Structure formats: C-alpha cells, structure tokens
Amino acid sequence: MSPDIDEKAIRHADAKTLTLLISRAKADALVDKVTEPSLLICSDQVIVHNGVIREKPVTADECREYLRSYEHSPAVCVVSVVVVNTLTGKRVEGTDIATQHFNKIPEHAIEALIAQGDVMHCAGGFTVEHMEEYTNRLEGEIECVTGLPKTLTVKLLEEAKRV
C-alpha cells in the first residue's frame, strides 16, 4: 500500500527528525485505508554523509558522485519507524542508526550499478545487496542499512500490541 505523499514537501535539517516526520506522514496517509485491525508499519531512511542528508539520487551523475564519495567517509544510515495499532490507535516510533564503511568502488562497478537501476531508487544511491565486495566495516544492524531495522521494528511491534 503506497501512502502517496510528497516526501520532498517535508523538510528538516536533522536526519532523525526528518525521517520521523516522513514516517508519521506515511502513517497518517495510510491509517484510514486499513480496514481490518492491524499493526501498520511505516518507515523512512536517509543517508548522512559528512553531515549532509542524502535521499534518493535525482540523476545518474549525482549517484556517481555519491558512490565515489563513500570510499573516503562512511554512509550513516538513519531509519525511523512508526507502528500504528489500527484497533486502538496506539502509535509508537523510534529511530535506528547504522554506519556502513566502503572500500573503493571501481568506475566499471559504479556504471554497472547505475545501469542495473536499483541504486537510483535507494537513499544515498547504494544497495549493499549488490555491493558486497565493496563493503567494509558495518557499525549497527545490516537491516538498518537495507531500510527496516529488525530489532527496533520488533520492539515497536511488541509495544504497539500492548493495550
């Protein structure tokens, strides 16, 4: 189910706040569309690189710039999750952070990643699933890097279930 919100209309200079605001907006847009008692999960991810928030790259050139930059400093993945119990209206939320370090990504690999296309639809212009040979140290959960932190999400689901 797509929330059909304009994420670009929601802005904030702080990555945690930005991802929480977008996750809340997604939940607000979807909660009335859920017709059966459910636990609705909404999330958003941005990448912070050298203090700058990166969302999905707009152009292939921007994606190239992103991918080239990660050998010099890591990608800090910031993911917020909002869980809504549609039966009770209870809402819980949280944010997780993981830091992914990369080795140098060769130009031929950058071009192949862009041609394949997935990186153009991901915050920060990368997908670790297609870049294993270029990943280095990970600080935090891999699920945070891939977009939905497992430990945080399970914790929030348990909290939302409690009446």
TrEMBL record:
<keyword id="KW-0378">Hydrolase</keyword>
<dbReference type="Pfam" id="PF02545">
    <property type="entry name" value="Maf"/>
</dbReference>
<dbReference type="InterPro" id="IPR029001">
    <property type="entry name" value="ITPase-like_fam"/>
</dbReference>
<dbReference type="InterPro" id="IPR003697">
    <property type="entry name" value="Maf-like"/>
</dbReference>
<protein>
    <submittedName>
        <fullName>Maf family protein</fullName>
    </submittedName>
</protein>
<dbReference type="GO" id="GO:0047429">
    <property type="term" value="F:nucleoside triphosphate diphosphatase activity"/>
</dbReference>
